[in-house]
Design goal:
14 helices; six-stranded parallel β-sheet; about 15% strand; alpha/beta
Length: about 350
């Protein structure tokens, strides 16, 4: 083997130095930041963890610049083990394929990110056992809190609340009461739809309602029926059909309804149910709204593209993120949060219920 020439050795030395300078971010340690900024490891730790100490503003700036230059990010695992808490927030969602839920999820994720809280998304499929699995798992990861969109009653939920896990309930109220709720006043919204039905003389109407274990579905139904009953036009029991919150179930529920009779108007538990109902109307050559008026709920983000004809209740999707983040922060700081933060809703009247 021949010896390297001096020029070759210089090239090798430069390559080694360059490789060291290009140290991967995950190989950069707190000691590298301390060495580069000329301070102790303890000072770097205090500065990067936001702990107020004796370091001057100039020292803090130098430490942060060194960390940025090296691409250093603190390892949160150790801090989580010491403090038994991270900045993570878990969002539990019942159906990620439903644009109603996914749009709210995006609003929450954006607001949490802006407050320096990363989010983990878990899909529960309306399954209490799966909800409990995720609640237990997220606590083992020491999440700082949980945003529970579409809660179902479960033993794990009660266990998490008894362990003082901060939980913000979204769209559906806590199944056994208490807690912090963020959503619209579904009861009032149901009454508003009924008021429109009375104005249009849609008193010969039916309801395809969502699952009654959901407070949102239940309150919409109760608000709607209570207003019609007050007006002397109660909905007959045979004109109330149960459905899950999907297009397929809305279609099946509409088939069962039309096998009994054809109502003048139908109030649907959500917009997906209304989509299924509309499909069945088309198959039966029933004109909407000429033969059957249709009213949905939620103003699903898909409406502008697939159902611009659908009258519905609009909810403020973009407002959920800020409201949920605010509720969690109140729980974290120990402030007494409001029992409920009610967001505004409005009727969006289109051709299907005119």
């Amino acid at each position: 083997m021949s010896a390297h020439a001096p020029s070759d050795l210089r090239r090798v030395g430069k390559s080694v130095s360059a490789a060291h300078a290009r140290k991967p971010a995950n190989a950069v340690g707190i000691q590298d930041v301390a060495q580069r900024s000329g301070v102790s490891i303890a000072t770097v730790s205090r500065v990067l963890n936001g702990i107020k100490a004796k370091a001057t503003e100039e020292t803090e700036a130098r430490v942060r610049k060194a960390a940025d230059d090296l691409g250093y990010r603190p390892a949160h695992a150790g801090r989580a083990l010491r403090m038994r808490q991270t900045k993570l927030v878990a969002l539990l969602i019942p159906d990620i394929s439903n644009a109603f839920y996914s749009t709210i999820a995006r609003s929450i994720e954006c607001a949490l990110r802006q407050s320096d809280h990363p989010m983990i998304l878990c899909n529960t499929d309306e399954d209490s056992a799966l909800q409990d699995f995720y609640l237990d798992e997220m606590q083992s990861y020491h999440v700082r809190g949980v945003a529970l969109l579409g809660a179902v009653e479960s033993s794990g939920l009660q266990r998490a609340l008894s362990h003082d896990l901060p939980i913000a309930f979204i769209n559906r109220r806590p199944p056994q009461g208490g807690g912090v709720f963020v959503g619209i006043d579904n009861y009032a919204a149901g009454r508003a739809v009924a008021e429109h039905f009375l104005i249009k003389n849609f008193t010969e109407c039916a309801i395809i309602r969502g699952p009654q274990y959901s407070s949102a579905s239940r309150e919409r139904f109760e608000g709607f029926t209570s207003r019609l009953k007050e007006a002397g036009a109660p909905v007959k029991a045979e004109d109330i059909v149960d459905s899950r919150l999907s297009i397929e179930d809305g279609y099946e529920a509409a088939s069962r309804l039309f096998n009994r009779r054809r109502p003048r108007a139908v109030f649907c538990g959500n917009d997906l149910i209304a989509y299924g109902l509309f499909r069945r109307c088309a198959e039966l050559n029933l004109n909407v709204p000429g033969n059957v008026a249709v009213f949905g709920f939620d103003d699903n983000p898909l409406n502008d593209w697939v159902a611009p004809w659908l009258s519905t209740v609009h909810i403020p999707y973009a407002a959920f993120g800020t409201a949920v983040t605010r509720a969690l922060m109140e729980l974290w700081t120990g402030e007494r949060p409001a029992h409920a933060e009610l967001l505004p809703f409005s009727l969006k009247l289109r051709g299907s219920a005119e």
